[in-house]
């Protein structure tokens, strides 16, 4: 058999290469789509092995604290480890907003270790809420040291699944310093563990870790979007925010904010940690004592009375209560299920339920 001409070899190779062109084109297209989606949802590291510029890299990862309610779908990857990421009720604004530029709010709901059912219910209530595109809200359940064997199992499982629990180093109490322990412990919990002088800042937390820190009761219903809208225009230093007590008062400088839910700016959190005033005077009604700290320390010069967007449940009528209304930020004294149901029904919390053949809810 006569040997093939030398010119035939390049032709065959060329034909083979030409047949591979569609595959390379398809790979490039996938990489382009992936890159666009990653930029859109805030994941700035490339997962494509095939890159046009092999010398370039996009290894910047945005680190978000677990237990966060975020508003755009770039947070979807965190859903499995963070109960606060609404799986379906995400804000429509999909533009990328850096972690540093978000309004960051921490809500610590003071409760008891044994309140498993209440925590499960509250997770449903808060997980299905929507927040503005430039807001991050972290919700944590706060209680003192565990004392029972079953608590060590159930609470540990909750933490593994939701990562939304803070266990304080204290003995469970209401007016013997639990609120002080909560606020004074936060700096140590959320301080940046990285070397502050490191050249790389991509993995550091922004400062402050939260612009506002709130203490709330587990019988209070917070409407997160309204809360964020109310806090957003306020000063981020020396702020004291809430429902002023006594109920008839409208002067936030004369008395103190109700324990149903009050917030302070991060600089006051640091002051509580460092000052001798709260350290030596933390026994008594927790909301009243907190107000006395600020008065004695001349703190909280910026105050905001959120009356009447925060109030007690309307029944029975009192000076602290009124009817439910659309501008509500918080409703207090929801101690029994019928009150919760009436409140949630009024605010139509199931309005975004998608139709499906799998269920029928009239």
UniProtKB/TrEMBL annotation:
Residue intervals passing through the bilayer: 20-37
GO molecular function: hexosyltransferase activity
Pathway: Protein modification; protein glycosylation
Keyword ATP-binding assigned: no
Signal peptide interval: none
Localization terms from the record: Golgi apparatus membrane
Reported cofactor(s): Mn(2+)
Name under which the protein is recorded: Hexosyltransferase
EC number: 2.4.1.-
Enzyme class: transferase
Sequence similarity: Belongs to the glycosyltransferase 31 family.
Membrane topology label: Single-pass type II membrane protein
Natural source organism: Trapa natans
GO cellular component: Golgi membrane
Keywords attached to this entry: Glycosyltransferase, Golgi apparatus, Manganese, Membrane, Signal-anchor, Transferase, Transmembrane, Transmembrane helix
Chief localization: Golgi
UniProt keyword annotation of Transferase present: yes
